[in-house]
Design a protein that fits this description.
Number of helices: 17
Mean pLDDT: 78
Radius of gyration: 29 Å
Number of strands: 6
Helix content: 40-55%
Order of helices and strands: EEEHHHHHHHHHHEEEHHHHHHH
Shape: elongated
Largest sheet: 3 strands, antiparallel
Strand content: 5-15%
Length: 404
């Protein structure tokens, strides 16, 4: 048995030039890594490291095999040159790719989807549904071994969402090559993950968090009322749930109204639907309670059919500033919550499922006008003229609106 195993990783400089990184931990816990311009040089370095630092862990046969491998690497230049006839035949057999016996791209994607959906987040599954069918449409009938690095690079470069295409292809090829750490494949059909060579798209500057001002909140709710999507907007605006969490909460069996406790004024978000896989509890404040009572009495659907199209339409009508983000409602909730109830941020972290760094970097002091904060937490059905308010929230001090 070898005491350690140096690994070879394909890498790429910012200029696009490829190189191979040999990385391992030498005896004595000393890290080692070296860069090489060719795979052959990287293989030579790997052989040298094993010979020098095996600590007696190699048998005589293994030592002989590695010396032979080093000789071949020194003489063959990546092909059968420098070998005897028998060695050349062995090399050909070991490196021969029979395209006729490899599965098609369509079959590979189907196998990947059947195996990879289990336990995945909803937004990741949505990405697979959106981008992998396009890959199948382009290469579906081709054998997976016929698709080269250049095919993948050209394919991703032609699409307006290269980041998501690359991400999906790296996951797909990692599974098919058996190199994925998260999803094991006992029968890989390709030797390596060729998608790793697809250049990573340039990362732009961090996007500034965008929230709705109080007048924009009122305009959004009127548009949501007009497009029959008001329950979703109210729910997200006063609970701060993420879109993916809201979808699961109102569509999965055993959730929905069963998990809304109007007597204890709490909503429980279990770990199986939370994005960060942590259970948390959300407070039902007086204004949200009035909305929920009205929606429940009227039998309103909290996640209506066709919500995605309606939601996109409302964001576009609000203006270009809000058209590009699905999380604008959640951003608004967190900003108004910190401004109203929790300058220390401790309760906000527990209720929203965020880290302290995220709150400080993105949400702190986005809302500074106390009058706007009071108006936000006093939005009730009466505000939109839907029904008489059961409680005169305008007469309740802001600090008492923290809980019903």
């Amino acid at each position: 048995m070898l005491s350690f195993n140096p690994r070879i990783y394909p890498k790429q400089y910012a200029s696009g030039t490829k190189y191979w990184l040999v990385k391992c931990q030498l005896p004595g816990c000393k890290p080692h890594q070296s860069k090489h311009s060719s795979l052959l040089e990287a293989e030579k370095e790997r052989v040298r490291l094993i010979q020098e630092h095996s600590g007696g862990g190699m048998t005589a046969d293994q030592s002989k095999a590695f010396r032979l491998a080093q000789y071949r690497l020194d003489t063959c230049h990546g092909d059968a040159r420098g070998r005897g006839i028998l060695e050349a035949v062995e090399f050909f057999v070991a490196n021969f790719s029979d395209h006729n016996n490899s599965p098609t791209v369509e079959a590979c994607v189907k196998q990947f989807r059947m195996t990879h959906v289990e336990g995945k987040r909803w937004d990741t599954i949505e990405e697979y549904d959106r981008y992998l069918p396009r890959f199948v449409e382009r290469f579906g009938r081709c054998r997976i071994t016929e698709i080269t690095q250049q095919h993948l690079i050209d394919y991703v470069a032609l699409h307006p969402s290269p980041f998501h295409h690359r991400k999906c292809l790296v996951s797909l090829y990692g599974f098919l090559s058996g190199t994925s750490k998260k999803l094991k494949n006992r029968a890989p059909c390709i030797p390596s993950n060729e998608a790793l060579w697809i250049p990573k798209p340039a990362v732009g500057p961090d996007k500034e968090i965008v929230i709705m001002k109080i007048d924009e909140v009122m305009a959004a709710l009127r548009l949501a009322q007009e497009h029959k999507d008001l329950p979703y907007w109210i729910w997200c605006l006063f609970t701060g749930m993420r879109p993916c969490e809201t979808r699961k909460f109102w569509t999965r069996a055993g959730y929905g109204w069963d998990r809304v406790d109007l007597e204890a004024n709490t909503i429980v978000v279990n770990s199986e639907i939370a994005k960060d896989k942590r259970r948390r509890k959300i407070i039902i404040r007086p204004n949200l309670k009035e909305w929920l009572i009205m929606f429940k009495q009227n039998g309103e659907k909290m996640f209506p059919t066709g919500h995605k199209l309606r939601f996109r339409t409302i964001r576009k009508l609000l203006g270009a500033k809000h058209a590009g983000t699905r999380d604008v409602i959640r951003h608004t909730f967190i900003s108004f919550r910190v401004a109203a109830f929790d300058k220390s941020m401790a309760a906000t972290l527990a209720e929203a499922g965020n880290s302290e760094r995220i709150i400080i970097d993105h949400y702190l002091d986005l809302v500074v006008n106390p009058a706007h904060v009071r108006r936000f937490w006093r939005i009730t059905p009466w505000t939109l003229g839907l029904r008489k308010s059961s409680r005169a929230l305008t007469k309740i001090p802001l600090e008492k609106l923290q809980a019903a």
